[in-house]
Amino acid sequence: MTFAKILTELPGPNSVKILEKKDSVARAFGTFVPSIVDYAKGARVWDMDGNVFIDLAGGVGCLNVGHSHPKVVKTIQREVERFTHTDFTVIPYESYIELADRLCKMMPGNDLQRAAFFNSGTEAVENAIKIARKATGKRGIICFDGAFHGRTMLSLSLTSKVNPYKEKMGPFFNDIYRVPYPNPYRWNGTTDPEQVSQEAINSLMNLFITQIPPSEVAALIVEPIQGEAGFITPPKSYLQALQKICNEVGIIFIADEVQTGYGRTGEFLGSDYFQIEPDIITLGKSIAGGLPLSAVIGKKHIMDSAGDGAVGGTFVGNPISCAAGLAVLDIYEEEKLGDKARVIGNQIKNKINDLKEKTPLIGDIRGAGAMIAFELIRDHETLEPADEETLEIIQKCLQKGVILFKAGLYNNVIRFLVPLVISTEELAEALNIIEESVIEITEKYQSDKLIGAER
């Protein structure tokens, strides 16, 4: 059985009719797939012309339970008939309280006992920072090279990548301090993970000497695995060392789990994978099966320091989204999605490792669970990014019915954000298409003598 089916040129005629009206949409909202979606199920998407795509992007990591999971759909249908909005601070509802209770019980450690819900990952980050500042009375925030925390102004100030996110968007927030994140593949002088980890820790300690003392730092925020930077995966000892330092000097330790949460790493949280216990955790993306919802979950004394009215918003913690969030937790547990993520990750890694032997384009393969990425380079000594080749591979895959998503500061990383409900057969077909496309692009550029034939 073939899962991906491209029946027309992309876009097909029915999509073209709709896309002719796209001039009314702001150009900032560029689109990758040149088709109009008709419907989607599990890990596949059908467009208006009957073309079928295997979706390895998952709505940029929002669909760990897949497209239109029956349990999520049924929950939404039931709840929307009851009521759609009250604002929780005006009239509370059970789904908000129940979701908060269940998530608090799933957090690492024994002290993460308060939850607040918002609409998006960037809102969760903004509010986590506000709560940390309120709790400590301190101003400084430490973040990292390569970080992505969102696009509203405070979270954008924390985000590292300039183009397309920050160029001509300033001025940005004050009291933001940035240190290197340990990337063994691109660390000057060594590839030894423990040495890289120690040198990165040394950079943080030097920050306390040269820029801001710990006594003036409210919080340190970190992605356990950096998403937009290309799934940069630190040594486990690094995050554990960060937590220890923060605990010793009184800095609130925030883990941004918007992308690493909900089974993506093979554990419910990236924090579980790295065996750390943050003071605050932010969640989003897959929390409600594609509906807008995010969360800030933290220690009781920190979260309660904000006080009535200090954080919130009209639509935060929407009742339909909270109900969907409860359905997602049921699915996660019943379908053992953490276990599935590890199986998916092994299937991807085995295929890409085999592919690496067939092409000089692949440099590094990294990640945890199903959160896997591979970096494309033109030269294994200089690590020159193969950005054009990466884009061409993604486009070739799209024309063959596989939706992929790029990442990396140099736009040369292909990352997998696969719905965790994907079948082994669907994923195998998609990986074969990726292999075929990588080989085709390798042969094209080798013939043009733009990449080396040997590693």
From TrEMBL:
Q: Name one GO molecular function term.
A: 4-aminobutyrate:2-oxoglutarate transaminase activity
Matching entries from PROSITE patterns are given as: AA_TRANSFER_CLASS_3 (PS00600)
Indicate yes or no for the key word 4Fe-4S.
no
Q: What is the top EC class of this enzyme, as a single word?
A: transferase
> EC no.?
2.6.1.19, 2.6.1.22
Q: Sorted alphabetically, which Pfam families does this protein's record hold?
A: Aminotran_3
Cited NCBIfam families: GABAtrnsam
Q: Output this protein's name.
A: (S)-3-amino-2-methylpropionate transaminase
Organism of this sequence: Cytobacillus purgationiresistens
